[in-house]
Amino acid sequence: MPDAFHLRHRVSFSADTAQETLRQLPESAGVLALRGADETTQPYLTKAANLRRRAARLLAPAEGQTRRLNLRDRVAFVEWTTAGSDFESLLCLYQATAAFFSLPEARKRLKLFVPYTVRFVAENAFPRVYVTNRLAKNALNETYGPFPSRAAAERYADAMLDLFKLRRCWEELEPYPEHPGCVYGEMKKCLAPCQQRCTPEEYADESTRVRAFLETDGQSLLSTVAQERDDASAAMEFERAAELHARWQKVKSAADLAPELVTALPRLRAVLLQPCGEGEVTVFLVHGGCLTGPEIFATRDIRAARAQEETGSSLFAQPLTLQPVALEGESEAAGPEDRLRDLLQRLQKRAKTPADMALLGDHLALLKRWYYRPEKSRTGRIFFADKDWPWRRMLNGAAALGNRVVTAPETIA
To answer: Which GO biological-process labels does this protein carry (predicted)?
Structure first.
């Protein structure tokens, strides 16, 4: 929780020993806090690609008249936490700002906005679908996202509704035959429950199909249309089969408008891997849209095993990977997959079902900001859970990230 967050390192600072103090700071990315002698005052917080360089700029003696911020005479303590990636730095800065200031202040400083989602209003007598950026605790199971923008969410909702005859109006309906209706009813794109042109059961069946489309990422309708197309083709009704194939393509285009990240928020589960030091990665768990972590995962043994497989030799190609093996009994050293399973179990024990909708919105905003970056400039890997975690792909991804040459991290705008 943000109120329990603490920066890992802390040293005293004075102008007389500034150089010695600065030499203790690492030349790596992380979050920096400069505090005065009064512990009750608010600190200066920032994230940096190089902690020592940023601290030196803020604490170096002022030279002549300059407008550069200088805190040399106001700082009594320097605190910092290192991070292996800009995503970890951003999450750490969010937690530090929430702890030292407040969650609303952290939200304001980091410019975090609740992502847009598509909501299915099931409690209404005549269910409908609409786009929103408000999270309601009692409607999370019917809320699908996060989308990169409002326009993207609206494109998906419009394309999906074009496949069905669900109402698009927002009013609380009190149907009667003389209701003026709307243009969608005139175009036969709505069952027009407002004018009682359908029974409640017929509208309920249509809304069930829409809900199934959202729950299955479009697969419910795709499989139905594909089966009808194949049956028509087998019956040599080729014109009918061609029409159904065109409809299948339309359904597929609508389903593809939802990125892989989009799902019902309580089912949003993923493992996020970020680079750390040489031979290590940091692991985050996304559980119900909330972030838990990081945990450090060593990848050296994965790299050694892969190198041995590629060279075909475990002695001459990789002599440093040899380890003593007991002559009797089983080896006590856990393999990479076992270590990763244990790590995820620890994260899952720490993960909690989101209860604070504002906190959930912040975590979704942080995840969205990273995920929807261009893939070429997005550092790290994400893996989604199906029935089980993709263990082999996760290990390969961890090995690839752990083998990287760590440079100054990218900036998440």
So the answer is: DNA damage response
Question: If you search the block for the tokens 């969205």, which residue do you land on?
Answer: 368
326: alpha, beta or left, given left = phi > 0 and alpha = psi -120 to 50? beta
pTM for the model stands at 0.87
Query: What is the CA 138 to chain-centroid distance, rounded?
Result: 22
Cβ distance 61 to 7 under 8 Å? no
Cβ-contact 145, 364 below 8 angstroms: yes
Q: Which CATH architecture has domain 2-62+69-109?
A: 3-Layer(aba) Sandwich (3.40)
pLDDT tens by residue, 265-318: 999 999 999 998 888 999 999 999 999 989 999 998 886 555 545 545 544 444
Inter-residue contact 83 to 29 (CB < 8 Å) = yes
DSSP state letter for 114: P
Query: 90-102: string of b/e by CB count within 10 Å (b at 16+)?
Result: bbbbbbbbbbbbe
Indicate the pairing of strand 143-145 with strand 280-287.
unpaired
pLDDT digits (tens, 9 = 90+) for 14-51: 988 899 999 999 999 999 999 999 988 899 999 999 99
Query: In sequence order, which residues have a C-beta less than 8 Å from that of residue 233 and are 6 or more positions away?
Result: 241
Nearest CA-CA partner of 341 in 392, 378, 301: 392
Closest CA to 384 of 220, 273, 260: 260
Q: What is the identity of the amino acid at 4? A: A
**Torsion 144-145-149-152 (CA) sign:** negative
CA–CA distance, 129 with 184 (Å, rounded to integer): 15
Average pLDDT over residues 127-146: 96
pLDDT given at position 332: 55
Residue with tokens 């006590």: 332
CB < 8 Å & 24+ apart, contacts of 298-305: 298/339, 298/402, 299/336, 299/398, 299/399, 299/401, 299/402, 299/403, 300/402, 301/335, 301/336, 302/336, 302/395, 302/398, 302/399, 302/402, 303/279, 303/399, 303/402, 303/403, 305/336
Indicate the domain borders of the chain: 2-62+69-109, 117-217, 268-322+331-402
Helices and strands (H and E) in the chain: how many: 13, 12
Beta carbons of 84 and 402 less than 8 angstroms apart:
no
